[in-house]
Design a protein that fits this description.
- This protein is mainly alpha-helical and 389 residues long.
- Helix 2 packs antiparallel against helix 3, helix 2 runs antiparallel to helix 6 and helix 4 packs antiparallel against helix 5.
- It contains 7 helices and 8 strands.
- It folds into 3 domains: 53 residues, no CATH class; 168 residues, f41 fragment of flagellin, N-terminal domain (Up-down Bundle), CATH 1.20.1330.10; 94 residues, no CATH class.
- Helices cover 62% and strands 11% of the residues.
C-alpha cells in the first residue's frame, strides 16, 4: 500500500544514509588524526590508559632533563677531582726533590705556590649554575646542605607515582671548606735521654769512620775486626734508642675541612730518625723554613699530600660509580619512553591501510544511500500519474 503521509522507503533510506555519514565522519577523523581513539567516547578504557601513558612520558621527560643536569654536576666534579689529583702528583714531586742536598727551596716553593693556586682555581671553577661541589662553605647559618639529590627515576606502581633520587654527600668530595677546625697536637719522639742518644750516635759515627778506614787498609785484620764490632754495637744501641723513642710518640688528631685545607696529623722524621708530629694542610705547604739539618717538616708534608691524594681517589671513585648509575638510568629512561610510546600506539593509533579502504567503501555507500533516498522520494510522484487521466 502506498501512502502520501508516510514514505517508509524514504525513511529507511534516510536512516541508512545518516548511519553511513556518521561512519564516514569517524573514518575521516581517524585518517586526518591518525588515531582510532582520539577522545573518551571512542573507547573510554583505552583512551584512559593512553592518556596516563602520555602523562608518564611527560614526567619521564622532566626526569631525563633533571638527570642530565645532575649528571653534568657529577661529571664536572669528577673532572675537577682528577685534575686536582694530577696537580698533587706534581707537588709531591717538588717535595721529594726538595729533600735533595743543594736544592734551592725558595725557587721550589715558588713553583709549589703556583700549583697551590691552580688547585684553588680548579675547585672554584668546577661549578655549574654558580655552585661548586668542590669549594663550599658549611659554616652554621650559611644555608649549607651537604646532600645533593639528582632525580633519577619515575615509576607508577598501582596508580601511585614515585620519584627516586641519587644522592651525593658533598662532605665526601669537597676540596675546600671555609668552615675548618684545627687538628690537635700529639707528642714528638721523646729526647729526654738525648745524652744517651748522642753518645750512641757519636760511637756510631766514630765506628763508621774507623770501619771505612779499615776497609781501605784491609791488611790489618785485627783493626778491621775491632772496628766492625764497635760499629755494629754502636749502631744497634742507637737504633734501639730511636725505635723506643718513636714508639712512644703520638700523632694527634686530624682537623676538619675540605680535603686540601684539612689539617692532617702526621709524622715526619728528622735527620737522626726521630719522629716529629705535625698538623699540616696541603694549602699551607711551605718548605722555606726547613733546614738541611732537619727536613722532618718536608717529610711530613709529603705524608699530607699522600693522604690528600688517597682521599681524592676515593672521592673520584664514588663519583665515577655515580656516573655509571646516571648513564645507566638515562638508557633505561630512553627505553621506557620508547616502550610507553609503542604501547600508546598499539592502543590508539589507527590502521591507515584499513581506514583508507574503509573510507573508500563508506564513500561508495554514501553515494548509494543518496541514490536510494532519491528513488524512494520519487515513488510519491508516480502516484500522481494515477490521477492525471
Amino acid at each position: 500500500m502506498s501512502s502520501l503521509l508516510t514514505n517508509t522507503s524514504a525513511l529507511t533510506a534516510l536512516q541508512t544514509l545518516k548511519s553511513t555519514n556518521q561512519s564516514l565522519e569517524q573514518s575521516n577523523e581517524r585518517v586526518s588524526t591518525g588515531l582510532s581513539i582520539n577522545t573518551a567516547k571512542d573507547g573510554a578504557a583505552y583512551w584512559s590508559i593512553a592518556t596516563s601513558l602520555r602523562s608518564d612520558n611527560n614526567s619521564i621527560g622532566a626526569v631525563k632533563q633533571g638527570l642530565g643536569l645532575g649528571g653534568n654536576s657529577v661529571n664536572i666534579a669528577y673532572q675537577g677531582l682528577n685534575q686536582a689529583n694530577d696537580i698533587l702528583k706534581s707537588i709531591q714531586g717538588k717535595l721529594n726533590l726538595s729533600l735533595s742536598p743543594g736544592t734551592d727551596k725558595f725557587k721550589t716553593q715558588t713553583e709549589i705556590n703556583s700549583l697551590l693556586t691552580q688547585l684553588k682555581q680548579v675547585a672554584t671553577g668546577a661549578s655549574q649554575g654558580g655552585e661548586s661541589w668542590l669549594s663550599i662553605d658549611s659554616t652554621s647559618g650559611s644555608g649549607y646542605q651537604n646532600i645533593r639529590k639528582i632525580v633519577s627515576s619515575f615509576t607508577r606502581v598501582q596508580g601511585n607515582i614515585q620519584v627516586d633520587n641519587l644522592e651525593v654527600d658533598l662532605n665526601t668530595v669537597k676540596l675546600y671548606d671555609k668552615n675548618t677546625t684545627a687538628g690537635t697536637s700529639g707528642t714528638d719522639a721523646s729526647q729526654t735521654s738525648l745524652a744517651t742518644y748522642q753518645t750512641a750516635k757519636s760511637s756510631y759515627d766514630a765506628a763508621a769512620t774507623t770501619y771505612k778506614t779499615s776497609a781501605q787498609t784491609a791488611g790489618d785484620l785485627t783493626t778491621w775486626t775491632n772496628a766492625t764490632n764497635t760499629y755494629n754495637t754502636a749502631k744497634s744501641t742507637f737504633d734501639t734508642a730511636v725505635e723506643t723513642a718513636n714508639k712512644a710518640a703520638t700523632k694527634g688528631a686530624d682537623g676538619k675541612g675540605g680535603i686540601l685545607n684539612t689539617q692532617y696529623a702526621v709524622f715526619g722524621t728528622d735527620e737522626n730518625g726521630f719522629r716529629k708530629q705535625y698538623q699540616l694542610a696541603v694549602k699551607d705547604i711551605d718548605i722555606t723554613t726547613s733546614q738541611n739539618t732537619d727536613l722532618s717538616k718536608i717529610r711530613a708534608f709529603i705524608q699530607v699530600v699522600d693522604r690528600a691524594q688517597k682521599s681524592i681517589q676515593d672521592s673520584a671513585s664514588v663519583l665515577g660509580s655515580m656516573q655509571l648509575q646516571v648513564e645507566s638510568q638515562k638508557n633505561f629512561i630512553d627505553a621506557l619512553t620508547k616502550a610507553n610510546t609503542t604501547s600508546i600506539g598499539t592502543l590508539v593509533d589507527a590502521d591507515m591501510e584499513e581506514e583508507s579502504t574503509r573510507l573508500k567503501a563508506l564513500q561508495t555507500q554514501q553515494q548509494l544511500g543518496i541514490q536510494a533516498l532519491t528513488i524512494a522520494n520519487q515513488s510519491t510522484q508516480s502516484i500522481l500519474s494515477l490521477f492525471r487521466s
